[in-house]
Amino acid sequence: MAMTYPVERASRNGGVTAPEDHEQSAGAEVPVGMDLERICRAVREILIAVGEDPDREGLRETPDRVARMYAEVFRGLHQDPRVHLRKTFTQKYDEMVLIKDIHFESFCEHHLLPFTGKAHVAYIPNGTVIGLSKIPRVIDVLTKRPQMQERLTEELADLLMKELDAQGVAVVMEATHSCMTIRGVHKPDSSFVTSAMRGSFKERLATRSEVLSLIFGGRP
Ligand SMILES: [Zn+2]
């Protein structure tokens, strides 16, 4: 038996504690260590370097806007994902817990272009469980950094394994990368799937097959 929880877009705003920080970046607090001025100067330099006039009307506020956007999408660099895993509950449940379809957005570190997709995370507890919203919150911190999907998948699995002291953790991430769709090879329909299996998911084929069929089963 496994418990399956579909989560729709639960990662949105997940890692941000400020209650006023909703959809908008405007007014979002700037993390300490984020140098907005410096980003502004750099963006202005890029505009000049590509042959644009950063002082024309349409571009005048662009460096500032981009700086605030970077502060938002890279805020995870200044956050510790472990804080979301501190509060655990003692529960005699040692079957699989699966959270499916956790929407995420991140930026590839090679091109600084977004990649977006879904994460599916399962764990087998070892006497302690965590609140359902915690895994999306952890994902929100890890994805708000320049990332590589392969590393992101492994970081998440290792972090959960360690912090939850779980018997096993399985992470599957599927995403579309803008650097594959809007430039380079231009393959708009390609999706990139990565997985990381730890503990019993790695050791036992039956457990791994079970989680994969729960994640992908029923799909055409
Ligand atoms: Zn890329």
What can you see in these coordinates?
With 220 residues, this protein is an alpha/beta fold. The chain is 33% helix and 25% strand. The protein has seven helices and eight strands, in the order E-H-H-E-E-E-E-H-E-H-E-H-E-H-H. The strands form two sheets. Strands 1, 3, 4, 6, 7 and 8 form a six-stranded mixed beta sheet that branches. A two-stranded antiparallel sheet has the order 2-5. The chain binds zinc ion. Zinc ion binds next to loops.
Task: Summarize the entry for a quick read.
The chain has 220 residues and is an alpha/beta fold.
Overall spatial form: elongated
Distance between the termini: 24 Å
Average pLDDT across residues?
A: 88
Radius of gyration, in Å, reads 19 Å
Tell me about the largest β-sheet. 6 strands, mixed
* CATH topology value of the largest domain: GTP Cyclohydrolase I, domain 2
Structural class: alpha/beta
Order of helices and strands: EHHEEEEHEHEHEHH
Please, what is the CATH homologous superfamily of the largest domain?
GTP cyclohydrolase I, C-terminal domain/NADPH-dependent 7-cyano-7-deazaguanine reductase, N-terminal domain
- Number of domain units: 2
According to DSSP, the number of beta strands is: 8
* Unreliable stretches: 5-27
